[in-house]
Write a structure and sequence with these properties.
The complex is a heterodimer of chains A (about 650) and B (about 575).
Chain A: H1 39-52, H2 56-93, H3 100-148, H4 151-156, H5 159-201, H6 203-250, H7 252-257, H8 261-314, H9 321-363, E1 374-380, E2 386-388, E3 396-401, E4 408-412, E5 417-424, E6 433-440, E7 445-449, H10 456-463, E8 471-476, E9 479-480, H11 486-491, E10 493-496, E11 505-506, H12 507-512, H13 520-529, H14 533-538, E12 546-547, H15 556-570, E13 574-578, H16 586-600, E14 604-608, H17 612-616, E15 620-625, E16 628-633, H18 635-641, H19 644-650
Parallel strand pairs in A: 7-14, 7-15, 10-13, 13-14
Antiparallel strand pairs in A: 1-2, 1-3, 3-4, 5-6, 5-8, 8-9, 11-12, 15-16
Chain B: H1 2-6, H2 13-46, H3 50-99, H4 102-108, H5 110-152, H6 154-201, H7 203-208, H8 212-238, H9 240-264, H10 270-312, E1 332-339, E2 348-355, E3 360-364, H11 371-376, E4 386-391, E5 394-395, H12 401-407, E6 408-411, E7 420-421, H13 422-426, H14 435-444, H15 448-453, E8 461-462, H16 471-484, E9 489-493, H17 501-514, E10 519-523, H18 527-530, E11 535-540, E12 543-548, H19 550-556, H20 558-567
Parallel strand pairs in B: 3-10, 3-11, 6-9, 9-10
Antiparallel strand pairs in B: 1-2, 1-4, 4-5, 7-8, 11-12
Classes of the chains: A alpha/beta (about 650), B alpha/beta (about 575).
Chain lengths: ~650, ~575
């Protein structure tokens, strides 16, 4: 007989994806199997992972074990015939029964069984090691690749979509590798073995068997197709209802403020009713499928018994009693692998689609980096001679190696940034920046003001090469930033963004993110600078308090203070501040103003802010509108111009 | 918990009862079928009697047909029952949540409620279906197959008894050791997802600090953890199939041996031997089913508990018996009010203030100073801890909650629009509002211009979460929505922060000139938003630091002065458009 591989809860790790996205119910598309294009390529690629991970031997071995196991199962069914025909029959004829041969047969069978059990266990162990090993490699590779993708990728792919590749897609691959593939293969082996055994037992009965299998297959396929249709419908309604729940519960406080409760109940009940209807239909058909298979199997069983019986009694077809017995057992065991294949093929199709999505992410074009100018620690003597050194000196230099001559040149890192006639668009057909030119000399503070969507953030994102410009040039200390090694470029630029994005871990770890080898003293100094020290100290575990990535235990303002501290500890020569204090109330902002001034002192700073106090004392203020700089100058100049800035400033 | 959940069966009771009955019938029939098969072999084939073969065969087909009908019936009935049960469960939860007050929602968190209403309901629904199907089918089959096996031949059936302990202990030990592994595994899954999530969201930070390698390392660590736990858990589970096979095969060998003896000694027939083997399969399979079911129930148990928590939650705020249903005017009195959220300490202390009907009050103060808490007490979104809040001369706790909230319109700090057209959203304020009324409210809120200038106008569809309107537009729509309910008191909780100064001035002017009878309370960050108010309340650390007009406060209130200085006459560069 054929045994299901035991499936514990491991078969269904509930990947906590976005609400409403997770699959509910089972066999969503049973009946209609749909393989995506290019499945062959996907399979090849998966096999490559098995090979490159060194799992080939294991995988092949597990397949061998599987064949052995399936064979033992089939033999086990035939064993009954052997016992009845070859032993019990003769024994009945003997006056003093000699059980010796039976003992030997049972012993042989016991050995065979032992092989079956061992190979079954070995198969499971090998498959577990292989599939999880492969998945671990894939996960790591996927994450590694993701880190190298340009920011643009994250703009164009939704968070939920990326997440589901890690959860649903990887999981469907796990299902396939550790369950579906072995089950399909093993079912195939079983089917072939059983079929061969059947043919050997009785050709006419095999004919009947095949005929009934076709009938059963036809009936179940019809039901299956309907079930699949209803499941798709249900899935859609379910997504709808879950979306409604999510939206309404998110706005529950609004519902209450407007006394909208009764209406909300009414609307929900209507949707819920529809879902109930669809679920009933989908589940009913799915539930019917199993008894259908089983009982049609019983029909077949009875039919074969009758026909076989008739044949045996009439003496046609050379059927022995034991042969009918064995055939009936085989016939019963024939159902299971067939229904298994039809179920598993479906999940294989789904898994291949998942694998394809995973590989798609891996195949995305990584960020370009053709830079060859690197950042090195340097010692600079009084005459301005630069010497590259290994240890940290607090001074940095660009190391510039000429491609042709191999000559090495050093240039001190000062923080001089210039943009010349820069054009840029997130998509080629829609430019968001037009002909932007500006310069920031070392130590200068440049502010950007303008309405939302004017292009302030975009400009700063070009300096650190989150995006590459379409036309024009950006020079850093006179070097085109395309020539600077990307990581070194970013290392020389500090960033504090409006969206703080902290990471799960202690406060200390979060601040240390700016400089991995920062001492506790440095971290505390940075926190003090950002005026975060006080609130951190009041937390239950101080600097060792663990916060979650969303910083839910902290207020938005406190998160921003941490982000400022994180930027401060990095101590870069150039800083980009994009609305760093937007969620901090004006009073606290006044308090940290000194810290911010200190942070900005002695470096080139690009700052985006909507508060005047932050902008006012800049060396230059750029007023942006629709991607163009429409006014520039310091505060007094701009006021005197009586242009846009003047209007913004005076509120007129 | 069970009682609470069982209460959701209701009109589906008949289906819920019918399902197990049909399942039991199906199981019994399925056990009986091999029994008749023995007759075919023994009485028919062995005896060479074709009539018996035919009659028993037909009997068999009849039984299989009955079993099929039971199976189909059971499938349909159980699907109806479980879907209906889930429907009622969701219905009850949703209705319950509608009765919640703010503090109830805070307790569960919105995300928590969403999970309970979606994922948790699904797993309870599946468990319910399992309960009314397999939970009856498997034991019935087990017991019945056992009885039948003993009836066929007791001494042969005894072989099960030798093997059963091995199976039960084997599977039991396996599940016990595996369970904590799986619990651990789910936790690591969460951790892994959290790392990915933080990286996807914070990719700019990762790149800005060039921490790709650090993140890879971090992810690699968690992934390795997951790999190890996964492998460990599944290696334990791997023993399941071999244990089953061991029991099955042992039975086969024992039966072959004993059976041969019994047949030779003429106490048993070959047909019976075959039957016995079929029964072993049934018994062992149903035992497998059983252990699988236990796992399902354990998983669903946690979900059921979370659902019950929602169903059993007592709404914190309810209308009193015999409530006041008319709000006389827009006057507000806070008397010695103290307030705090949940178990935490007071965030409002000693609040005493009287507001006359029709007055415009500005509220200003830093984050965490208690501004929002202060205004939320007026429509009784929360209850005070000490003291009292009165509206129109009556304690808010004496009003019918709905009546009170209809008279006190509040624009929340977190502005939310719902998917649907603009006019549908606005009609939240008043479902019977005419088009003219809607237009007028929008004009007052300075929203009419942008609505009318975009294609679709008032029938333009707002996407999920109001994603397709800008922050400032959303705020103005929310103000219009609040105005439509024709309130006696209007509260704006930082609701013009994304509206530019000029437009804001127009809104405030419209309030002053066109809605003089309404009491207006305006919380703001910007001095410009409140400086023309009749009086301004300065909040600090949960207390009122000062009350007075702009000029008075400039003169005597230090905090107000500081805020004013930090903003000077400040324009808000970001809020243009």
């Amino acid at each position: 007989m054929r045994l299901n591989r035991f499936t514990g809860p491991a078969a269904r790790p509930q990947s906590p994806g976005p609400a409403g996205g997770g699959p509910r119910g089972n066999g969503a598309t049973r009946g209609k199997i749909h393989f995506e294009k290019g499945s062959g390529v996907t399979i090849k690629r998966l096999l490559k992972y098995i090979h490159s991970g060194g799992y080939t031997v294991m995988f092949v071995l597990s397949l061998v074990c599987m064949v052995v196991n399936a064979q033992v199962s089939v033999r086990s069914s035939l064993f009954i015939r052997t016992v009845i025909d070859d032993f019990i029959g003769p024994l009945l004829l003997q006056t003093t029964p000699d059980y010796g041969p039976l003992v030997i047969a049972i012993r042989n069978m016991a050995i065979l069984y032992a092989c079956g059990i061992i190979s079954s266990y070995a198969m499971n162990v090998l498959l577990t090691l292989t599939s999880h090993g492969v998945l671990n490699t894939i996960r790591n590779e996927m994450f590694g690749k993701m880190q190298e993708l340009p920011v643009k990728y994250f703009d164009t792919n939704s968070y939920g979509d990326i997440m589901s590749r890690y959860t649903n897609d990887v999981d469907s691959m796990r299902q396939m590798l550790s369950m579906s593939v072995p089950q399909v293969l093993s079912s195939l082996v079983t089917i072939v073995s059983i079929f061969v055994a059947m043919v050997r037992l009785s050709l006419p009965l095999t004919g009947i068997e095949i005929l009934s299998i076709f009938v059963i297959y036809f009936l179940t396929a019809t039901i299956g197709a309907r079930s699949a249709k209803y499941f798709r419908e249900r899935q859609k309604t379910l997504g709808d209802v879950n979306g409604y729940i999510e939206e309404m519960l998110n706005g529950q406080k609004v519902v209450m403020v407007f006394c909208h409760e009764e209406k909300a109940k009414e609307a929900f009940d209507k949707k819920n009713e529809e879902l109930c209807e669809k679920t009933t239909r989908a589940n009913a058909f799915a539930n019917i499928l199993m008894p259908m298979m089983g009982n049609l199997g019983n029909f077949k069983y009875a039919l074969i018994a009758m026909i076989g019986g008739a044949l045996a009694i009439s003496g046609n077809g050379g059927l022995s009693l034991g042969a009918i017995a064995s055939f009936l057992l085989l016939s019963k065991n024939f159902n299971m692998p067939i229904s298994q294949i039809s179920q598993q093929i479906n999940s294989v199709a789904m898994a291949l689609a998942g694998a394809k999505r995973v590989f798609e992410l891996m195949d995305e074009e990584p960020e370009k980096d053709s830079g060859y100018v690197t950042l090195v620690n340097a010692e600079i003597d009084e005459e301005g001679n630069i010497k590259e050194v290994g240890e940290k000196t607090g001074k940095w230099a660009w190391r510039y190696q000429h491609k042709t001559s191999g000559e090495v040149e050093y240039r001190e890192l000062k923080g001089d940034v210039r943009m010349e006639h820069v054009d840029f668009g997130y998509t080629p057909d829609k430019m968001v920046l037009h002909d932007v030119s500006l310069y920031a000399k070392p130590g200068q503070k440049i502010a950007f003001v303008g309405s939302t969507g004017a292009g302030k953030t975009t400009i700063t994102n070009l300096i650190n090469r989150f995006y590459d410009i379409e036309d024009g040039k950006i020079r850093y200390d006179g070097i085109n930033i395309n020539k600077i090694k990307r990581d070194d470029l970013r290392r020389s630029l500090g960033m504090v963004l409006q969206d703080t994005n902290l990471f799960t871990g202690t406060i200390k770890e979060n601040i240390r993110y700016g400089k991995l080898d920062a001492t506790d003293e440095e971290i505390m100094a940075a926190a003090k600078l950002a005026n975060a020290h006080d609130f951190i100290r009041r937390l239950p575990q101080g600097y060792d308090t663990v916060i979650s990535g969303t910083g839910s235990q902290l207020s938005q303002g406190q998160c921003q203070l941490l982000a400022i501290a994180r930027g401060a500890v990095a101590d870069p020569p150039v800083m980009i501040l994009d609305e760093p204090t937007s969620s901090i109330d004006t009073r606290t902002e006044t308090l940290i103003q000194k810290g911010m001034d200190k942070l900005m002192h002695g470096r080139t700073v690009f700052v985006i802010a909507h508060r005047l106090s932050t902008v006012q004392n800049s060396n230059a203020i750029m007023v942006l509108e629709n991607g163009r700089i429409i006014e520039r100058g310091d505060h007094d100049d701009l006021i005197a111009q009586q242009g846009k800035y003047y209007h913004l400033y005076t509120g007129k | 918990m069970i009682k609470k959940l069982a209460g959701c069966v209701r009109e589906y009771l008949i289906y819920t009862i019918l399902s197990p009955l049909l399942m039991i019938a199906e199981a019994v029939l399925e056990v009986m079928i091999p029994y008749y098969l023995a007759d075919i072999v023994d009485l028919g084939i062995n005896a060479g009697n074709l009539d018996v073969v035919r009659s028993v065969g037909l009997k068999l087909i009849f039984l299989a047909f009955c079993s099929l009908m039971c199976g189909i019936g059971g499938g349909w009935v159980s699907a109806t029952a479980s879907a209906g049960f889930a429907k009622n469960l969701q219905h009850d939860m949703y209705h319950k949540i509608q009765d919640f007050s703010f503090s109830n929602i805070d307790k569960f968190s919105t995300a928590g409620l969403v999970t309970r209403m979606t994922t948790d309901v699904t797993s309870v629904q599946q468990a319910f279906m399992m309960l009314i199907r397999m939970a009856f089918r498997a034991p019935t089959m087990l017991v019945f197959a056992l009885i039948m096996a003993f009836r066929v031949n007791a001494s042969l059936a005894m072989t099960f008894v030798y093997v059963l302990p091995v199976l039960i202990i084997g599977l039991g030990v396996m599940m016990r050791t595996a369970h904590p592994m799986f619990v651990k595994m789910f936790k690591i899954y969460d951790k892994l997802n959290a790392v990915v999530q933080e990286n996807v969201r914070g990719i700019r930070v990762v790149k800005a600090f060039v921490r790709e390698d650090l993140e890879k390392e971090k992810f690699g660590g968690v992934a390795k953890d997951l790999y190890r736990t996964n492998v460990k858990a599944e290696l334990i589970i791997s023993a399941g199939a071999p244990i089953m096979q061991f029991c099955m095969y042992t039975c086969m060998l024992l039966i072959s041996w004993t059976g041969a003896h019994l047949i030779v000694s003429k106490t048993m027939t070959t047909g019976q031997l075959m039957n016995t083997i079929t029964y072993i399969q049934m018994i062992l399979t149903s035992l497998m089913m059983f252990s699988y079911m236990i796992i399902m129930f354990v998983i669903a148990g946690a979900a059921a508990k979370r659902i019950t928590e929602v169903l059993e939650e007592v709404p914190a705020i309810r209308s009193p018996e015999d409530p006041v249903t008319e709000v006389a005017d827009g006057s507000i009195v806070f008397k010695d009010v103290s307030f705090g959220y949940g178990e935490s300490k007071d965030c409002l202390e000693n609040i005493n203030v009287e507001i006359k009907s029709g007055e415009t009050i500005g509220v200003i103060g830093g984050t965490g100073s208690g501004k929002t808490s202060f205004v939320q007490l007026i429509p009784r979104l929360y209850d005070v801890r000490g003291g009292s809040v009165s509206v129109g001369g009556v304690d808010v706790r004496d009003y019918d909650v709905q009546a009170l909230r209809k008279s006190v319109s509040m624009v929340l700090q977190k502005n939310i629009l719902f998917s649907g057209t603009i006019s549908e959203n606005l009609r939240w304020g008043n479902e019977h509002a005419t088009d003219e009324e809607i237009k007028r409210a929008c004009e007052l809120a300075q929203a009419a211009d942008f609505i009318e200038s975009t294609p679709g106008g008032y029938e333009r569809v707002i996407e999920h979460g109001g994603a397709n309107v800008s922050g400032g537009q959303r705020q103005r729509l929310c103000i219009a929505r609040a105005l439509l309910s024709d309130p006696k008191i209007l509260i704006l909780d930082d609701s013009t922060s994304a509206v530019d100064t000029a437009t804001e001035a127009k809104i405030l002017k419209a309030f002053r000139e066109d809605l003089p009878q309404i009491t207006k309370i305006i919380i703001a960050q910007r001095i410009s938003s409140v400086k023309d108010a009749d009086r301004i309340i300065v909040m600090n650390n949960g207390q009122i630091d000062g009350i007075g007009t702009h000029d008075e406060l400039l003169g005597r209130n230090v905090i107000y002065r500081e805020v004013y200085d930090s903003q000077t006459k400040g324009g808000d560069f970001d809020a243009l458009k």
